[in-house]
Amino acid sequence: MPEFLLQMAPELRWALLAVFALLLVASSAIALLGVRYPGKDWRELKARINTWWWIVLVFSLTLIGQLQIALAVFGLISFLAFKEYLTLSNTRQADHVVLFWAYLAIPLQYFWIGIAWYGMFVLFIPVYMLLLLPMRMVLIGETKGFLQSASSLHWGLMICVFSLSHLAALLTLPGSPAEGAKLVFFLVALTQANDVAQYLWGKSIGRRKASPTVSPNKTLGGLLGGIFTTTLLAWLIAPYLTPLSPLYAACAGVLIGTMGFIGDIVISAVKRDLGVKDSGTLLPGHGGILDRLDSLTYTAPLFFHFIRYLYF
């Protein structure tokens, strides 16, 4: 067995192996379906599963108990998400200098996590970057579109960097990255499972639209079914991956199920406002990186502060 797998907590190692086994089954099934039904177009489904392989492989790097590697991976994810967001939103020509300072906030945000400076981690972007970026824009002297540009730029930093950096911060909560990795896996697995469960419940029992103008495919049945499934999963797997009691595990499931849905439709509202279907093309079969991480932009910070308040 590879050394990095031996360094993982046993519960996490088995959970990760189960995910790889699931992907292997999915890839085999697609291959067999392609042989059985050659007339059907399986390319999109195949692309989605192939991309899942890459996502899980990259995500696995954050779980091997090496904080520096995890910070680099999460920092890269924030960079790609923020770059994608800026590509979608129209920034002013005059703000290109300001973008340098906005991008500089990404390594600094993860640096605060690396040196365990919690106070700076929670204040740096919400307070200091909120004040710094408009100040630098004022010095440029362009006032047309100032408020829209300043608010759009800071919102992007909050969603793509501040929110997602809470995933990395989870690694530092229990005192060792190896133990924190279990919390990261718990959050990411439940958030992704919630997305799948809401889709399946919506297809099965969804009748009434949950948000018809923003995301017409989301149904109330899908939302409630997803929350129920996520709460049940949280209650079942929390004893192996978290210090949560059964009651708090169920509360975490409700939190992740509900906030995952809200994160999803918030990013959908942004895309509708910008007139695009997907946030990008980085992940074949999935769209952009924000399409894949939309739910986590809400669940990551809320779960972090939920479990930190209760146990750390």
UniProtKB/TrEMBL annotation:
GO terms for cellular component: plasma membrane. GO terms for biological process: peptidoglycan-based cell wall biogenesis. It catalyses: a 1,2-diacyl-sn-glycero-3-phosphate + CTP + H(+) = a CDP-1,2-diacyl-sn-glycerol + diphosphate. It is a multi-pass membrane protein. Signal peptide: none annotated. InterPro entries: PC_trans. It is an enzyme of class 2 (transferase). GO terms for molecular function: phosphatidate cytidylyltransferase activity. Keywords: Membrane, Nucleotidyltransferase, Transferase, Transmembrane, Transmembrane helix. Pathway: Phospholipid metabolism; CDP-diacylglycerol biosynthesis; CDP-diacylglycerol from sn-glycerol 3-phosphate: step 3/3. The chain crosses the membrane at residues 12-33, 54-82, 110-133, 153-171, 222-241, 247-267. It holds the Pfam family CTP_transf_1. Its EC number is 2.7.7.41. It is found in: Membrane. It comes from the Bacteria. Belongs to the CDS family. This is Phosphatidate cytidylyltransferase.
